[in-house]
Every structure is written in C-alpha cells, then in structure tokens.
Amino acid sequence: MMSKKNINRSVVTFVTGVTLAAALASCSGSSTTPTATTGATAPATTTAANTPATTASSLSGNVTIDGSSTVAPVSKAVAEEFAKVNPGVKVPVGTSGTGGGFKKFCAGDTDISNASRPIKKAEEEDCKKNGVEFVEIPVAIDGLTVVVNKENTWAKCLTVAELKTMWSPEAQGKITNWNQVRPDFPDAKLSLFGAGADSGTFDYFTEAINGKSKVSRTDFQPSEDDNIIVKGVQGDKNALGFFGVAYFEENAATLNAVEIDGGAGCVAPTSENINTGKYSPLSRPLLIYINKKSYERPETKAFVDFYVANKNKLAKEVGYVALPSEAEPLIAERIKSGKTGSTFHDAKAGTPIVDLLK
User: Where is the region Disordered (predicted)?
Assistant: First the structure.
C-alpha cells in the first residue's frame, strides 16, 4: 500500500541530524562518532535556502521495516522521499500488524518496527531475551475512527457505552441488530468489521472501549489490512468498522465518520480534536521502534535521522495528525538522553501525547 494521498511531493528537506546520530549512538554504547553520519556516508543535504538536494548520497544497503498497517503510510512516505536522495538504500515496509511486527523485531529480523500501540511488557521481555535493545519514538497522532456506510443515516454519534454494547465479549451472538444498541435505531442486522488480533489497532480499540486489550467479541469480520475493512463497510448499509483516521480521510466520499461521546458530548475525529486529546478515548500515538544495533549502521542512522526530521510534514500529507510543537523539544530531549526501552506501555488510552512524553 502506497502513501495515503496522491501528492506530488518535492524532495523533502533533509537535516543531517548530527546531534540525533550522536545521541542515539551514545545510547547504544557504540564507539561510532557523529562524523559517521557526515561526508561520504551521509544523505545529501540542502542549502540554507531549503532548495532540493540534487546530488545523491553514496549510501547503500537495506533498512527493513515491518509492523502496523496504520503506521505504514507514514513510513512508506518517508522511505519514498528518502530514496530520492539515497537511491542505493532499499527500505521495504511490511504490514504484518503491530504484534506480528514485534515478533520479527524482537527476534532481530527487522531494523525498525511500526507500532500503532506501545510495545507490551511481554514483547519487551522477548526483545531483552534476544539481546534487542530499542529506542521508542512517537512519529504522529492518530484518531481511531469509527465509520459507517454512507446510507447509514441514524448512527451520527455513539457513546463509549454504546460501542461497548456492540463490542464486548458479552455481546457475542446476542447484540446482532442496531435497535439493540439504541431503541430508536432501525431493526436491521448489525454487521461489524474490525482489526485482526495481531493488530495494535485492535488492542488499542478494545482497551479504550472494553477496558482491556484482546477482550472483545469474536463474531465479527477481522482483517490486518485496513483496506479490507474499508471495502467491507462500503459494501454493507448496516456495517460499522474502525481504523486509523488516514484511511477514513482517503475514503470520506464513501464512508461516514461517527462522532464519539466519551462523556463530554459528541466529538468528531478532526485534527484539532485528536491533537488535544478531546477526541477521547480514541486518540493515540503512532510509534516506531529502532533496533539499537541496527542504528549503528550508517544507512539506518541516515534513514532514522531523515524520518525524525520530516515526520510532521509527511504524517500530515498521508492524513494523520502531526505531533504538537510542544512535543518536539521533549522528543529531542528523549533522543539526546539516549533513553532505551519503553515509557509508553503503561499509558492510559486517550492520554495527550505531550503528557506521555513528559
């Protein structure tokens, strides 16, 4: 799946990121100095006037990424722009789901893991057992978007309690019609589409709505591919599904986004509402996890530096919400301090990104 909007982007300005490289290298215990990211091994830079780079770098190699299909559009957009100035570096992006991605990452099979939820303690332990240390970086903010078919004229706003009525384990085989969710809804079959069990989207949604990840009814149509969920809801008047806001933005002409009442009234998944956490409890950070040893390789250093420098612009281009400006110095401090491990895994669903970084 390519990036979420067909935008003819000019080459994105690259900032060499010597400080970032030095910080992450120091956190890894590597003896590599900051100059390893400059000169012949550095991506091409731009002039002070922000003119596009015209000379390709001499870097070569592979940077492997797998994991969340939700984060994939951002990583693919970054990889696409990075390739323009680093044609010798291949950056394939897989989409095996957050859980599937962490299995590969903690086995040492990938360099970077895309994640639409924080790494779990059990996954962190797997990484530790295999000698995989990592740096955790938020790259964008998502609002899990509940969607219905365009012909659905009744479900304009749903409370968290109503979503729980639909999705709780107790609903299995029992809540099968719309009027069981709310009496004034039509007597029509309720068709549910959602993320598969290996997806971080599934974990985050079930924790936010049902109180615990992995706790959900199972008689729905699951998929690790958000595009399949999109098509399922598009094809059924009585369907409801959920996925990241970027997928809704791309399909807004054929789907309706349901406003969510988390206790303070109906709130739409707009950029402002997602960024501030007002779209609660379904606002969440999107993250990447970087293998510390992989970062010691010059091509991985260059790609990660490029990712961090350009994440806000590209996240917005593919339909997600850029991190708030207040988050940037906190991210810089996190990188400068060389902090490894996760500080996100105990976060409550819907917590604003700035609060998480603090």
Answer: 28-62
Low-confidence ranges of the chain (pLDDT < 50): 1-54
Cα 298 to Cα 18, 43, 52: the distances in Å are 12, 10, 22
Question: Looking at beta carbons, which pairs linking 122-128 to residues 24 or more positions away fall under 8 Å?
Answer: 123/99, 124/341, 124/342, 124/345, 126/102, 127/102
What's 66's DSSP letter?
A: E
Span 81-111, pLDDT tens digits: 999 999 999 999 999 999 999 999 999 999 9
Let me know if 237 is exposed, middle or buried by CB neighbors in 10 A (0-12, 13-18, 19+): middle
pLDDT of residue 81: 97
Q: What angle do CA 190, 168, 117 make, to 5 degrees?
A: 105
Alpha-carbon Rg for the chain in angstroms:
21
The 10s digit of each residue's pLDDT in 303-341 is 998 999 999 999 999 889 898 888 888 887 777 776 888
Q: What is the pLDDT of residue 42?
A: 30
Q: Please give the Cα distance from 294 to 235 (Å, whole number).
A: 43
Length of the chain: 358
Q: What are the CA-CA distances from residue 214 to residues 15, 96, 119, 169, 304 (Å)?
A: 40, 17, 14, 10, 31
Spatial contact of 102 and 250, defined as CB atoms under 8 Å apart? no
Phi/psi of residue 136, nearest 5 degrees = -105, 120
CA distance 255 to 267: 17
User: Can you list the alpha helix ranges (DSSP code H) found in the chain?
Assistant: 18-28, 72-85, 98-106, 121-129, 160-167, 200-210, 226-234, 245-250, 271-276, 292-295, 298-317, 327-337, 353-357
Q: Determine what percent of the chain is predicted with pLDDT higher than 90.
A: 63
Instruction: Please report the pLDDT score of residue 138 as a whole number.
Output: 94
- Alpha-carbon distance 3 to 72, whole Å? 8
Cis peptide before 281 (omega within 30 of 0): yes
Q: What is the pTM of this model?
A: 0.75
Query: How far apart are the C-alpha atoms of 281 and 161, rounded to whole Å?
Result: 12
